[in-house]
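During the second year of the project, the team shifted from modelling isolated chains to modelling whole assemblies. The rationale, set out in the original proposal, was that interfaces cannot be judged from single-chain predictions alone. As a representative example for this report, we include one of the complexes processed in the last quarter. Its constituent sequences, exactly as entered into the pipeline, are reproduced here:
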Amino acid sequence: MKVKVLYFASLREQLGTAGEEIELPAGVGTVAALRSHLRGRGGAWELALAETKLVRTAVNQDMAPPTAALKAGDEVAFFPPVTGG
Amino acid sequence: MKVSVQREDFDAGAEMRALSRDPKIGAVASFVGVVREVAMTLEHYPGMTQKALERIVEEAKGRWQVMDCTVIHRYGELAPTDQIVLVVVASAHRGDAFAACEFIMDYLKTQAPFWKKEAAGWVEARASDDQAAERWGGLPGTRKLG
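Output from the structure prediction step:
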């Protein structure tokens, strides 16, 4: 199944991309599993998405916890804690 | 109710005058956030930003008597003394207007997808902002992440 993944702010700069379409491997069905899958790319991905890093996530433009389930066509966003206002 | 995410500046007085003329309104509370000291660029997540702000306003309406409300948040390049954000809440009495205005600002700081970047780098989120939002309890459907 394919999902659209977006990266914002410092995460976008560290990863060198604003987004991509990803075909999820079998067994990658949650936000946390996707994050772990991306970390597996190594290099900047391993660093920026390390478990010690505060990374917030949204699914279909709503804040979502790591346990949130993913389905085909979802828009998943990874970003640092927000600093508006 | 009006929620706007925009590059352009706003006129707080004009926004207050544009509120509902409901004769039951007896209090209008407002907050303006201003760029302090250092120029910045505000990035946001188009699509989610508007929804997130609307959701915060809906939540405020469920908790207090909010008879009208305007939230404007800017993005893009901003210089010191520029206005960043406006929250205006109209209610029958000042207690609800003040509380809803403060709640909207506190939640916006932790839930609305905006990020500030200064010449020195990205601005780090502050734990005090999370604590300010937590005073009000959780927003349904969300929980503290990370």
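The interface with chain A takes residues 33, 42-45, 47-48, 51-52, 73, 84-85, 105, 108-117, 121-125, 129, 141-143, 145-146 of chain B (CB under 8 Å). Chain B has four helices and eight strands.
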